[in-house]
User: Fold UDP-N-acetylglucosamine 1-carboxyvinyltransferase from Dendrobium nobile.
Amino acid sequence: MATASPLLPLTFLPSKISASTSTPQRTSLPSIDHKLVISGGRPISGHVPISGSKNSALAVLAGTLCCSSGPVALRGVPNLLDTRTMADVLRSIGARVEAEDRDVLVVDTSDVGVTEPCSEKIGRIRAGFFVLGPLVARFGKAEVAMPGGCRIGLRPVDLYIKGLEALGAVAEDEKVCVYGANGKGLVGGSFHLDYPSVGATETFVMAASMADGVSVLTNAAMEPEVADLTKFLIACGACIEGAGTSTLVITGRKKLYGAEFTILPDRIEAGTFMAAAAITRSCISLSPVIPPHVARMTEKLTEAGCKITQIGPSALEVSAVPEVTGGDLQAFNIKTLPYPGFATDLQAQCMALLTTCVGSSIIEESVFENRMHHVEELKKLGADIKVVGNTAFIGGTKPGRIALTGGRVRAADLRGGAALVLAGMAASGITEVENIAQIDRGYERFEEKLLLLGADVKRETEAAVSNLHPVLLA
Ligand code: UD1
Assistant:
């Protein structure tokens, strides 16, 4: 087993990086041909620190474009491929993004003058498109390429555009080029979202914060990350009522100012580690975590037979040891929904867990239409899963057995990749998870944290794996 190096304090960049520098340097840069090699069947134990929220950090980084006066100091921005790409998107239009110390990222968009960010960077992450709203509100024009991100469905941007149109914007080609009212900024307006899209809500809120007049958004997404963005904008001088609810009333301000802000803990990372404890029938603690943000996950794991205990204001203990569960976990059903429903970003991890539970279960994915790529990979590890449309039927296992066996699998997307690692931790034998760049997009030092908990997991290049595991190459 490889040994864990002590965790460094949460940090975005290791040293000062100038505005003109492209991708920041890092001592152990993950690359596309890295794999995780997991020796499964070991329990884990101890404490895992939870990083700042990826999705909140990405929205807040876009939101810094609203602050035309003075720098923003952000704490808790996780050091991830996606956040580094977002920093590069901002740099591509003249923002200064640099790490002040190990935990503070300073972003100054005062000198931004360009309204067409780097298309190649935008094309790598969904959140790249979030810059559209603040740019058009601030400069009266924005030309933003279609975004990238996980391939988990069509992921159109029609609701983003319709929201901006309600604020007076004119979309030139319904895709990328948006002008403000009369070629200037935006004006207050009302908009009802047909679906509570996270990104469309965030785009509307940022744009309306700088529009001339009052705007009202109904059926807004209520995800904690949306509320976090709202709190950030308020800290910068925005006037927004209803943060965290489905109706937001925003009185536009001519100018927003720099401020200090701390990103909330990542509920999806927390939920992933909760699932890790359950699938390995272990007991771990985690913090910081905001318990209501993982309430659905807590309920489902409790239904399975785990014991979840709040051991501090922002700390949980998750126990799935045989003394607590009686030896087996029981199957449960899930339907993914917008918050406060069960998070789609935890669907894959729970599917991995359910393959080890006693009894059959059903997962209905209702948020994205194509988020089952992990199914075929889990089946390679022996899982019994059938998919009909967007519903997965999971066979589960028999009392006293964990049915998974090691094998070679490939991460097709971020959360599906994490699910495969969890499955590998429960499986007998060795599991290789390829295309780890997907996991690096959204989990800060994932394998380092797993090592700290006692998991046997190593990051290896393809060549190194070939040398160490010839059996798997046969
Ligand atoms: C965000 C999160 C993602 C999470 C998702 C749902 C970020 C960077 N990503 O993604 O991790 O899984 O919320 O919690 O924050 N839709 C449209 N038209 C639009 C916009 C969305 O039809 O204009 C549809 C999407 O195709 C999808 C559904 O709405 O089926 C939900 O998408 P949305 O809430 O917008 O998710 P994202 O913001 O992309």
Observations:
- The pocket of uridine-diphosphate-N-acetylglucosamine is lined by residues 55, 58, 126-127, 153-160, 195, 197-200, 221, 223, 225, 344-345, 367-368 (CB under 6 Å).
- Residues 40 and 369 are 31 Å apart (CA to CA).
- The two ends are 23 Å apart (CA to CA).
- Residues 267-279 form the longest helix (13 residues).
